[in-house]
Amino acid sequence: MSTRVEESRSTVLTAANQLTMLRIVFVPVFIILLVYRHIGWALSIFVSAGVTDVLDGLIARRLRQKTLIGGVLDPLADKLLMIASILIFSMSRVGFHTAIPRWLMIVIICRDVFILLVAVIVTLMVGLRVLKPSPYGKASTVMQFLMILAVLIVNWQQVHIPQLQILFYATGLMTAFSGLHYLGRSLKEWPFQ
Questions:
Q1: What are the 10-residue block averages of pLDDT along the chain, 193 residues in total?
Q2: Please, where are the H alpha helices in 63-101?
Q3: Residues 152 and 43: beta-carbon distance below 8 Å
Q4: Tell me: the pLDDT tens digits for 42-94?
Q5: What angle do CA 17, 140, 15 make, to 5 degrees?
Q6: Read out DSSP for 124-188?
Q7: CB 152 within 8 A of CB 172
């Protein structure tokens, strides 16, 4: 009995999953640092989260540590950090030097809610299916990461960079396009009857 428990524990607590859990722990720390205006420390946590995201993916693939729980926790950790960042930087009350436009916050959150709803509907209609991330979804995530990184750096250094608007529009377009692409793929790959 104890051998089974140890085996199941070892399949859950892989090195890759431990890094993912560390990223989830980073989220409240990151939020607290931002709210209390410790932007330099928040930036270091954000970069550390990005590094652990890359590392847990490499470890999971190279050491064959892909697990079902890791497949759920990894995107959850990413989304928690991204959504927390976007919400905080788009709140005017917080009063950052450079903020994320509200329209972009709405596009990003609506896309994520939309994808979640489609996944739930498809699961209810045809059962649980796994749809691999598309290159557009990955590009959208990378652009959101770079945008938040740029906003963190600009606020940390207290500089004004008008060209940041281009990154906002590009991120918004890629986010919207990836959501539409996800819908198209869902309709093609999952037969509705």
A1: 49 81 93 93 95 86 78 84 93 82 94 84 71 83 94 93 94 94 75 51
A2: 68-90
A3: yes
A4: 999 999 999 998 888 888 888 787 777 777 788 888 889 999 999 999 987 77
A5: 10
A6: HHH-----PPPHHHHHHHHHHHHHHHHHHHHHHHT---TTHHHHHHHHHHHHHHHHHHHHHHHHH
A7: no
| Tokens, residue 116 | 């979640």
Tokens of 136: 């557009």
Q: Which tokens belong to 84?
A: 């927390």
| Rounded-to-integer distance, Cα 11 and Cα 41, Å | 33
Vertex 78, ends 41 and 178: CA angle to 5°? Answer: 125
Cβ-Cβ contacts under 8 Å for 122 (sequence gap 6 or more)? 129, 186, 190
Question: What is the torsional sign of CA 133, 135, 148, 88?
Answer: negative
DSSP for residue 94: G
Give the separation between CA 167 and CA 165, rounded to whole angstroms: 5
